[in-house]
Amino acid sequence: MSHLPMDIVEEILFRVPAISLKRLGSTCKRWKSLFKDHRFTDKHFLKAAKQSLVLRFSGYTQATPMVAGAAVAAAAIAGRYGIHSWQAFKARPIVPRMRMFYEGGFQAALTRREAALILGVRERVVAEKVKEAHRRVMVANHPDAGGSHYLAS
User: Fold this and answer.
1) Distances in Å between the alpha carbon of 67 and those of 35, 73, 78, 80, 134?
2) Considering all CA atoms of the chain, what is the largest pairwise distance in Å, rounded to the nearest integer?
3) What are the alphabetically sorted keywords of the record (predicted)?
4) What is the secondary structure of 45-97 as a DSSP string?
5) Tens digits of residue pLDDT in 96-121
6) Domain residue ranges of the chain, discontinuous segments joined by +
7) Which residues contact 10 (CB under 8 A, 6 or more apart)?
8) Greater pLDDT, 60 or 116
């Protein structure tokens, strides 16, 4: 087909189904480069015979409704499971989240950095926030709340 003009070759190939074009890509380098060209692929999509997207079961005409029914049933079961999971999630008891405090080896003298880590604040923070963080730590470690007498004093 090398003696035919390229525009006629393209016009013929526009009408070939995409599955066949895939096989023809190994025929020659010219065609392979043509099949990779976006202009060709866009025009081929518009002109080629439309291929059915539905799977065809040759001789199994009863299989399609069964597959569709199984898909609907699976979707219904998944939806039911999702609804039950959501209801269980909404009904769960609200558990207060415990903040993780600094558990590290302490230095001989307390530094500003270490104090900020213990309180859970940044080093350069307003004094009011430091007092609030200190109060939270003291309440969490109070003997009435199961804390230590040593830490609370």
Assistant:
1) 35, 10, 16, 20, 64
2) 99
3) Membrane, Mitochondrion, Mitochondrion inner membrane
4) HHHSPPPP-SPP-TT-TTHHHHHHHHHHHHHHHHHHHHHHHHHHHHHSPP-PP
5) 665 565 566 777 888 888 888 888 88
6) 6-47, 112-152
7) 34, 40, 43
8) 116
